Amino acid sequence: MWIGSMGMALIASILKRSREDSNVETVLWYPYDTGMFVSSSFDKTMKVWDTETLKPAEVFEFESNIYNHHLSPIARKHSLIAVGTKNPKIQLCDLKSGSKIHVLQGHKAEVLSVRWSPRYEHILATASADSKVKVWDVRRASGSLFSLDQDNGDKSKSSSEAVNTAHNGRVNGLSFTSDGLFLLTTGTDDRMRLWNSATGENTLVNYGKVCNESRKGLQFTVSQGCSPEFVFVPCGSSVAVYVLHTGELVTMLRGHYNNVDCCKFHPDHQELYSGGKDGNILAWVPVLRASDMEEESDQKNKVHNLLPRHDKRKTKK
């Protein structure tokens, strides 16, 4: 069970023109220094911001709308930002040089989501409106390592169907598990799939119908440090909570008054944050079940009973 609350104060804001074609789609902290963050927008720019001055330190310009960008959470040998745009080519931008240094070619439609592996710093996953998800080693110039195949290479399919598609619609969401061993994808076929990130095998976990009408990227998230692990997916004005490895729908978190745009899990506090078109950011925290509280009480009693006698007497006073 999770409950939500609003308890956040606005420290500063950056004004922009209120036009739909300049929507800010992604904002990410630089993983190693909160003095810098990166935003990308439908105005065809990606900006690197100085947190103290709230002014751009670097601006990358593109020829088409930007759907998503991502920075590696673990990279030490590179400082690349992967960028997915309306153009099928994935751009790799170097923070150190301030330039676009490489292009990954292979998709046939706009790239809606990009994610670096949290396990291997050179591994990148990309999702496209062409129904495909590709996994790349950015050190290689010969193309992607493999494309995810929802049928796991089923040879019984006719040649026209066996084209290694991850979904039967636009693939608009990607998320690695915290250990990087699995990759989750969402598509407009109302399906979510869990893949072995090393082999590309579809694990065939059945999450049922996962409503997804987004024409842009779907920003969902996976828990970290929970047992079992959960997946949090925007679903209309609610957030659907699934058990990662069984597909069970645990609950629907309701609190927003309009569609939920994104959600993010904070592993240090075991909290979920969700943002919606109602202009609210909600913080969701887990509530202990009665059985859990009884267990906690029993543990406290056991600890109390283990205290030396003189400590017990002091407690009574």
User: How widely separated are the two ends?
Assistant: 38 Å
> In this structure, how is the largest beta sheet organized?
4 strands, antiparallel
Rg over CA atoms: 22 Å
Number of helices: 2
Helix content: under 10%
The chain-level mean pLDDT equals: 85
As residue ranges, the low-confidence spans are: 7-13, 299-317
Strand content: 35-45%
Helix/strand order: EEEEEEEEEEEEEEEEEEEEEEEHH
Protein name: DNA excision repair protein ERCC-8
GO biological process, one term: response to light stimulus
Pfam families: WD40
WD repeats: 17-59, 104-139, 164-205, 253-284
Give a written overview of the molecule.
It is found in: Chromosome; Nucleus matrix. Keywords: Chromosome, DNA damage, DNA repair, Nucleus, Phosphoprotein, Repeat, Ubl conjugation pathway, WD repeat. With 317 residues, the protein is mainly beta. Helices cover 8% and strands 40% of the residues. The chain has two helices and 23 strands. A four-stranded antiparallel β-sheet has the order 1-23-22-21, with no helix packed on it. A four-stranded antiparallel β-sheet has the order 2-3-4-5, with no helix packed on it. Strands 6-7-8-9 form a four-stranded antiparallel β-sheet, with no helix packed on it. β10 and β11 form a beta hairpin. It is globular, with a radius of gyration of 22 Å. It starts with a strand and ends with a helix. The C terminus is likely disordered.
